[in-house]
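Appendix B: complex inputs.
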Amino acid sequence: MTVAFRLARQQDIAAVAGLLADDVLGQGREGADLAPYLAAFEAMRNDPGNLLIVGEEEGAIVACYQITFLVGLSQKGARRAQIEGVRVAQHRRGRGIGTMLIADAERRARNAGCRLMQFTTNKARHDAHRFYDRMGFTPSHIGYKKTLRGACPPR
Amino acid sequence: MTVAFRLARQQDIAAVAGLLADDVLGQGREGADLAPYLAAFEAMRNDPGNLLIVGEEEGAIVACYQITFLVGLSQKGARRAQIEGVRVAQHRRGRGIGTMLIADAERRARNAGCRLMQFTTNKARHDAHRFYDRMGFTPSHIGYKKTLRGACPPR
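Resulting structure:
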């Protein structure tokens, strides 16, 4: 099996939106209209520090993740890589694609000069926790979220 | 008491580095050399979506935080605001500065079109957890971190 991880292209966005929705937590909060996903992708393409990556196997998109390189002052100005929206297609799980995905993210993070990698995962994703523990991540933090009402339209 | 929250300037960086170091977790991982903090601040200044904010009271820097506006596909392309490096000077605590800081961050997040606010906090910061619960944040996630060895020099 060979999964190639590469930058997403516009024609991949329908598949990525499908992966995001095909998820026990995602199904309630994603939508069928592609327009907002395409708009978000266009905004990401203007930012070289915020990448959407897809895993392709025999012409099919079987995985995706977002990686953002964050500059900040903490820890002597350590650059950190943050991962969001990690998904592996349900019917392709259990074959090591998640492990390859994390390895790809770590390689991209090191190449971008990041000394830390971080992400949050919902407390309900117990299988994911065991996977991330095995991959050498430490569950040292609590991830807080808040929905903001009355946000202005993005410019 | 009036604390004004504003964008950090180069001459504030020594005070911000001091706030980051004057912390039970920060003291072991921050440094006395200002150069890496100034370099990180310069890199942030080139990114309008990644802001260092300071709270100033009677000419003194008494608080700081970093806010980053993240574009991504998840949740119908929801823009999210992420907070890092929240600090209030030890001798100014218990006077509502943290509440003002979060209100300032939420205002900036809404203005930037963000529908979500998120951050992680170390599991050891029990006082902080109670504060964030009161401020309406939900501790729904686990925050995983990993130190990356062999990162390339940032470009």
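The mean pLDDT of chain B is 94.
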